[in-house]
Design brief:
Elements lengths: L1 H14 L12 H9 L1 H21 L5 H15 L3 H13 L5 H9 L5 H23 L6 H19 L8 H8 L2 H21 L4 H26 L4 H25 L3
Helix pairs in contact: 1-2, 2-9, 2-10, 3-4, 3-8, 3-10, 4-7, 5-6, 5-7, 5-12, 7-12, 8-10, 8-11, 8-12, 11-12
């Protein structure tokens, strides 16, 4: 239990802006539990976002425009901008049209290029559009909590099951200790969290099934893309995956609300 608790604190420290003042001892057990609990971190982020959205929408007269913009930036801020930074680094590397080795070097460069800025604006603009139109329709706010759970569960799977691009960095440090058992454990925890939500709020069940299918498709597609374009998985590609996944899932929700009755 000590390793599990330390793993949770490590994940909070690494993946969120939630302050963790305790010094976490890095070892194999802690690293494995940290990966297994990625979905729980997603649930915490989702719960905070859902509560904040409820408070702003129920006890004030804020417009859907404001709520969509607030919710979008809240998700970026809660993650400390970590995943947005990964998206920008990967965009700079991909649009350089260089070989794999040079792309890995560009991802490691702290400087921000024009393609990074353009791509993050493109990504967040479309996410804002999907969120705004969804909020304007009759949607269940519990779906706000679902999206981070899916994205962090898939991130854990991608970290373990994807080919590592290099032997250094945070992704490699986690991968050194974790194996497929830990990926399966993360998926089990993520599934249990989603099942609990469905049990208490059955109206989101059909939507969650569609989101699960979209997540599986995106995870396999991302694995093939990253291995082909960057030689495998790095911390930056995992961050880019989370940002891209959340936009993709909001797109699915928007699509379902616009054209399908679920």
């Amino acid at each position: 239990m000590k390793a599990a608790w330390s793993g949770l604190l490590l994940s909070l420290q690494f993946l969120t802006v939630i302050p963790v003042r305790r010094q976490i001892e890095w070892n194999g057990d802690v690293a494995r539990w940290s990966v297994r609990l990625f979905p729980l971190i997603g649930a915490i982020i989702g719960a905070v976002a859902t509560v904040m959205y409820y408070l702003f929408s129920a006890f004030s007269s804020f417009s859907p425009l404001f709520l969509a913009l607030f919710l979008m930036w809240l998700s970026v801020w809660l993650a400390g901008g970590l995943h947005a930074d990964g998206w920008m680094d990967v965009s700079d590397a991909f649009f350089s049209y260089r070989d794999v080795k040079r792309r890995q070097e560009i991802m490691s460069d702290s400087r921000v290029g024009a393609f990074a800025v353009l791509s993050i604006l493109f990504l967040l603009s479309f996410r804002f559009l999907f969120m705004f139109e969804t909020i304007c329709s009759d949607f269940d706010i519990f779906l706000i909590a679902v999206i981070p759970v899916f994205s962090r569960t898939a991130m854990a799977w991608l970290l373990i099951c994807g080919k590592p691009a290099k032997q250094t960095g945070m992704a490699a440090a986690f991968r050194e200790h974790a194996d497929r058992y830990d990926a399966h454990a993360a998926m089990t925890i993520g599934s249990c969290l989603l099942a609990c939500l469905c049990a208490t709020h059955f109206s989101v069940f059909n939507t969650i099934i569609f989101l699960a299918c979209g997540t599986i498709f995106a995870a396999f597609a991302a694995r093939l893309f990253f291995e082909r374009q960057f030689g495998g998985i790095t911390g930056d590609t995992l961050g880019a995956f989370v940002e891209g996944m959340e936009t993709w899932l909001w797109f699915i929700i928007w699509l379902l609300r616009s054209y399908v009755t679920v």
